[in-house]
Amino acid sequence: GFAAYGEGDRMAGIDLHSQETVKSLAVGDLPWRAYSTADGRFMIVPNNGDRTVSIVSTATLEEVARLDGAEDMTGVNTGWFETTAFVISRAEDKVVILDLETMTNAGEIALGGSPETGVITPDGTKLYIALSGADAVAVIDVKARKLIKTIAGGGKEPWGAHMVGALNYCR
Predict the structure, then answer these.
(1) Rounded CA gap, 146 and 124, in Å?
(2) What is the distance between the alpha carbons of residues 162 and 139, in angstroms, rounded to a whole number?
(3) For residue range 10-21, what is the model confidence (pLDDT) as tens digits?
(4) Cα–Cα distance measured from residue 126 to residue 145, given in angstroms and rounded to the nearest whole number
(5) Global confidence as pTM
(6) Quick count: other Cβ atoms within 10 Å of Cβ 149?
(7) What letter would DSSP give residue 167?
């Protein structure tokens, strides 16, 4: 298991059988939460204090990259064969795109309202993000890495996007 703790700017790797900390790893300033890729290769940690994102190998328990993030990062979703991560920034109304093959920043997508939680379709091709400030849901083509639609009329201030069988960190 993994636990990010902001007070010490660290992430702990925990052996769930022995209930012992295996390693305590330095990450960026004020880490928010550790998010796993669906294939389990990486933990992705938004560091809100320094606006960076730590990518940690679960095989080596080492930080393999620290990339630019944004302000008030609240979630991470991954898709397209776990090659792409989308880091949600509520304060900047956008997602930051990370290429997990090259370990580089791959752009940003502006959203039309305050993004909340997102969900990736079971096939890893679409990302749906609730936009509470726009009373809508954004639809992102994961492979193309672009916003393809905004769905309106789903209700006032949607907080989360969820679906059965989806690749989502809140199951």
Answers:
(1) 14
(2) 13
(3) 999 999 999 999
(4) 9
(5) 0.94
(6) 13
(7) B
The distance between the two most distant Cα atoms of the chain, rounded to a whole number of Å, is: 49
Question: Would you call 140 helix, strand, or coil by DSSP?
Answer: strand
Strand order in the sheet with 73-79: 73-79, 84-89, 94-99, 104-110
Mean pLDDT on 26-36:
95
Q: How far apart, in whole angstroms, are the C-alpha atoms of residue 85 and residue 113?
A: 20
CA distances for 108 relative to 87, 94, 105, 118, angstroms: 9, 7, 9, 16
SS3 (DSSP) at 25: strand
Contact 157, 23 (CB under 8 A): no
Position 92, amino acid: E
Q: Tokens representing 127? A: 């990302």
C-alpha 159: how far from its chain's center? 16
Q: Is 95 helix (H, G, I), strand (E, B) or coil?
A: strand
Kindly state the DSSP code that residue 31 receives in the 8-state scheme. B
Neighbours of 13 (CB within 10 A): 18
3 state DSSP class of 99:
strand
